[in-house]
Amino acid sequence: MHIPLPGRAHAARLSFALAGTVLALAGCSWPAAPAGAPVTPKFLFDQQFSGSGGPYLVTIDRETYPPGFTSGWHTHPGPGSLCLLQGQVRIDVRGQPSVTLQPGQCWTEPPGVAHRPTNPAGTPAVCLFYLFAPADQPRLQPAPSS
What is the CATH code of the structural domain delimited by 8-136? Predict the structure, then answer.
C-alpha cells in the first residue's frame, strides 16, 4: 500500500510515530530464542511510503542475539534505532567509543555509520530495530572489518 505524503519530513514524523506505537505495544513479552539460534529478524512493520526524493521504506523488526553473538560490520542507508528489550547489547561503532545498552535504552544511528552489535552476556538479547531508508537500497550493506 502506498500513502502519498507531502515530503520526507512528514514521512519521518509518521514513521517515528509508528515506531513509538510498536515499541509501546511490544513490551518484553516475547520469549527469547534459544542460545545459539541464528539471528533472523521478525518483521513487525514493513511499509513503503512515497515522498519527495523517491519512495521510502520503514521497517521495524524484532531481533534476538544469542549469548556471545557478534555481527559483521555493516551500515544502513537511512537513520535507524536499536532499542533493547531484554539482555545486554554492546554496539561497536567505527571510529567512536562502543555503546552498551541496558533494557529500555536505545541507540540511534545515522545513515552510513559502520557498526556491529555484540551480545557480551550469557543470556539472549532481544531488540527492536527501526529503519527509515530509501526503498531502492538494501537495508544492510557489509562494511570492511577495519
Answer: 2.60.120.10
The phi-psi region of residue 26 (left if phi > 0; otherwise alpha if psi is between -120 and 50; otherwise beta) is alpha
State pTM to two decimals.
0.73
Q: How far is CA 14 from CA 18, 51, 106, 133, in A?
A: 6, 12, 19, 13
Calculate the average pLDDT of the chain.
81
Q: Side-chain half-sphere of 136: how many Cα atoms within 13 Å?
A: 4
**Vertex 29: Cα angle to 138 and 35 (nearest 5):** 65
Domain ranges of the chain: 8-136
pLDDT digits (tens, 9 = 90+) for 18-46: 444 444 434 433 333 334 444 788 999 99
